[in-house]
Amino acid sequence: MPNTDYMEGQHSLHELAHNAIISNPYFFGQKITVDVRGEDVILRGCVNTYYQKQLAQETVLEIDHVHSVQNEIEVNSVWNRSHGIHQQPKSKLYAVNSVPSWSF
Q1: Under a CB-based contact definition with an 8 Å cutoff, are residues 64 and 20 in contact?
Q2: CATH number of 13-82, picked from 3.30.70.20, 3.30.1340.30, 3.90.1150.10, 3.40.640.10
Q3: Residues 5-10: what's their mean pLDDT?
Q4: What is the arithmetic mean of pLDDT over 45-60?
């Protein structure tokens, strides 16, 4: 997908980012909102897969003049479970100098 040029006075960065998301068929029926602060784009909403979350971010990063993307999109885990998609277990973080207890 080619970069979309940001032209002062013709299209705002918000319009370009929003149009890039809604014109992509992978996001049909998904709830994604776009917020722009300067050249930084914030994505919020909910999608069905982690692939869609990553694709939304990459789609917006292709737009000229986008400095960064803060991806706050959530993945609908209920949809994943009903379609047989299992998420990777989250890794456990331990405090410094702590030792996890092990059961055998």
Answers
A1: no
A2: 3.30.1340.30
A3: 48
A4: 94
